[in-house]
Amino acid sequence: MGMPPLASGPHGPDTLRPLLDTVLDALRTGAAARRGPLPAGGPRAVAARVSEAAGDILPERGAPEALRALVTALAEGAADPAHPLCAAHLHGAPLAVATAADLAASVLNPSLDSWDQAPAASALEALVTRTLARETGAADALVTTGGTESNQLAVLLAREAQGANVRLVHGAGVHHSVPRAAWLLGLPEPVTVPAPAGTLDPASLDEALTRIPGPHLVVATAGTTDAGLIDPLPEIAGRCAAHGARLHVDAAYGAGLLFSDRHRPRLAGLEAAHTVTLDLHKLGWQPIAAGLLTVKDPGDLHALHHRAEYLNPDDDTDAGLPDLLGRSPRTSRRPDILKIAVTLKTLGRSGLGTLVDTVCALAEEFAAHVHDHPGFELHAPPTISTVLFRPAHATDDAVAAVRRTLLTTGAAVLGRARTDGRLWLKATLLNPHTRPDDLAALLTLVETALEGPTPR
Ligand SMILES: *Cc1c(COP(=O)(O)O)cnc(C)c1O
Known about the structure:
Blueprint lengths: L11 H23 L7 H13 L11 H11 L19 H13 L10 H17 L4 E5 L2 H16 L4 E5 L5 H8 L6 E3 L8 H10 L4 E6 L11 H11 L2 E6 L23 E5 L11 E5 L18 H5 L18 H36 L3 E3 L7 E6 L4 H14 L5 E5 L2 E7 L7 H15 L6
Parallel strand pairs: 2-3, 2-4, 4-5, 5-6
Antiparallel strand pairs: 1-7, 6-7, 8-9, 9-11, 10-11
Helix pairs in contact: 1-3, 2-3, 4-11, 5-11, 6-7, 8-9, 11-13, 12-13
This protein binds pyridoxal-5'-phosphate.
The site of pyridoxal-5'-phosphate (PLP) has 15 residues, from helix 6.
InterPro entries: PyrdxlP-dep_de-COase, PyrdxlP-dep_Trfase, PyrdxlP-dep_Trfase_major, PyrdxlP-dep_Trfase_small
Pfam families: Pyridoxal_deC
Keywords: Decarboxylase, Lyase, Pyridoxal phosphate
C-alpha cells in the first residue's frame, strides 16, 4: 500500500465514492444480520462478536478489509433508534440529510477555534446561532456537544456573573448533569426543591429563595428526561424576577417543541431565561453532537474570552479576523452547525414541526392504548413524547427483569424510570416512522417476557 489517500483535495470525492459504497453495503449487511432493534445475546455475546471481527486491531501490516469488517460488526451490534421497538432514551435516528451533511463536515474538517481553520464554517455558525437564539428570545448561542456541556456552560456563566458562592436551586426532576456541573465548578451544594407532581413547585421555589441566602441560579426543566414534563416556566420566571435570581432553563428535550405551531405555546416563559439548553440530537433528529446554549445577555459571554497568541492575537482581531476562541471552552471544534443548518433549511419550520407533531401524537396514541389495555397501567398522559407504563400488578423487580429480558434477547429497547415510589417502563418516542401497530406489538412483547421463557 502506498500513502493512504486523503478525504479532501482534488481526488477526495473520487477516493471516497467507492469507500462510501463499502460503508453503505456494510451497514445493510450488519443491520440484516441483527434482525431487530438490538443484537441478541447480551454484553458477552456482543463483545465476543466484536472481538472476532476486530482481531488484532493494531497489526504490524494493515488490513484493507477493516472498513467493511468493522462497520458490519458495529451495525450488527448496534442499538438501532430507527427500529420502531427501540424507544428507551432520548436517542433518535438522525435524518438522512443531516447525516450526509455531517459527512461533508468530516471531509472538510474545519476547526472552529480560529478563522483561518474555518472561514465559511465560522460565518455559517454565526448566522445559524443567532437565528436559533432568537427562537428562545435570546441574543446569541454557543454550540456545544449536548445538554451536559450546555448546562455546564450555563452554570459557569452564572458563576462568572454572580460569584463563586452562587447557589443552584432546582427541581427534583433535574437532569443529573446540573448538580454535577455545580460539583465540577466548585460551587456550594445545590438545593433541591420538591416536585410533587414531577414539576418544580413555584410555591416551594419561592420558599427556598426566601430562606436560603443568594445569589441564586434557578434551573428549570422543559422536558424532564424521565417523563418529558415541563416545569411551569412563567410562574418560575416570575418568582426568579421577584427574588433577583438568575434563571437557566434546561430544554434539552423540550426545545424541539419550538418548531411546532401546535406545541410551541407550551414553552411560554422560556424567553425570560438568562440561558437555555437546546439539544438537537434529541427532538431535532441530528447525529450526535448537536447541542446549543442560548444566552440572553451577550455581555455574559465576555467571561469566556480567552487569548492564545497562535489562534487569536490582538492584531489579527483588530484587523477584523473573527475571534472564535471565546465561543467555547474547547479548542479544536467540529462544525456541528453544518448539519443543523442543512436540516433547518431543507425541512423548514413546517417540516420540523410536522416531525414534532407526529411523535407527540404517537405518544398520545400509545398512552391511550396502554390505558385501554387491562394488562397495563399508564402513569400519566404524555406531555411531550415519553410514556411511562408498567404491567398491572407486577413487582418492581419483575418490571426491571422484563426490561433486561427484552434487551438481552434483542427484542425491544425500553427505558426505565422511578417515580411515585415505583419502577416504570419508559418509551421515548422519537421515530416519526413508527406506527401505532408497532407499539401494540411492543405491549405484546412485554407481556410475553413477563410470563417468562415459553416452554418448547
Ligand atoms: C439528555 C439531557 C441532557 C444531557 O444531554 P447530552 O446531550 O446527553 O449531554 C440534559 N438535560 C436534559 C433534560 C436531557 O434530557
